[in-house]
Amino acid sequence: QHRAMAAAADTTKTRPKTSPKSIKFLFGGLAGMGATVFVQPLDLVKNRMQLSGQGSKAREYKTSFHAVASILRNEGIGGIYTGLSAGLLRQATYTTTRLGIYTVLFERMSKADGTPPNFFMKALIGMTAGATGAFIGTPAEVALIRMTADGRLPPDQRRGYTNVFNALIRITREEGVTTLWRGCIPTMARAVVVNAAQLASYSQSKQALLDSGYFRDDILCHFCASMISGLVTTAASMPVDIDVLVKVIRKEGFFSLWKGFTPYYARLGPHTVLTFVFLEQMNKFYKIYFLDS
């Protein structure tokens, strides 16, 4: 009887069924790409706002609304979706990798009874996932930045990339393959901060909301947790989103490190929300139709 009870106790500690690793990576990429379709115009404005005023006192765009109006006036309605193909490829590489690695490691570090890892371990897992994803996604990031910045250059200096693949091929042919990884180290450093903040704060916020007893594991919980995550991530990552910190501070002041905070959060907040909501819904339906059936 004692052995039977021990055996029964062991079965209760078995890990719950989970999706294959390939599905975790696939869903991560699809969630990020779906979110990008909605927030690409905000990403464009964020990039233009940060480039505005670099190296001079005058700022090209006074506010994010001024930036949108200027882009629409000078480049047309299609101008606000400049770089969409690069944004999608970035998600297909960077987000597929980071969310896939985070989910796999998160489950591996969780206890047999489903108890998640502590916040420090979540942050460490997020840092690992972010650095790896950033390295793989840097070529698409380079193409994205060039494509979104192209419209503010004088007409004779514009590169005129037709899509992300055209950009990658031309950069490789005209400037060498190593150019695709230009700025890789600061990109990885930023990704470490972003993912430690975003992934860990989302997991921790979701856990806290569920533990409060006022939330169930549904879209409302995912929305609230991801909004908290977006705010934490914006505050933590904005200072490392500009390449030359000392130069910027000296010329434009300390608070210029948070220049473009409104469009940055307006972009990062919805992107974080949509990514996690899409991801959670895909996992939910996969569990219903494939794991529980």
From TrEMBL:
One GO biological process term: lipid transport
State the reactions this protein catalyses. malonate(in) + 2-oxoglutarate(out) = malonate(out) + 2-oxoglutarate(in); (S)-malate(in) + 2-oxoglutarate(out) = (S)-malate(out) + 2-oxoglutarate(in); oxaloacetate(in) + 2-oxoglutarate(out) = oxaloacetate(out) + 2-oxoglutarate(in); maleate(in) + 2-oxoglutarate(out) = maleate(out) + 2-oxoglutarate(in)
Which membrane topology term applies here?
Answer: Multi-pass membrane protein
Q: What is its main location?
A: membrane
Kindly list the residue ranges recorded as spanning the membrane: 23-42
**Top-level taxonomic group:** Eukaryota
Q: Which GO terms describe its cellular component?
A: membrane
The Solcar repeats extend over 23-108, 117-208, 217-285
Q: Does the keyword Transport apply?
A: yes
Quaternary arrangement and interactors, per the entry? Interacts with SMIM26.
**Family note:** Belongs to the mitochondrial carrier (TC 2.A.29) family.
Name of the protein in its database record: Mitochondrial 2-oxoglutarate/malate carrier protein
User: From what organism does this protein derive?
Assistant: Sinocyclocheilus anshuiensis
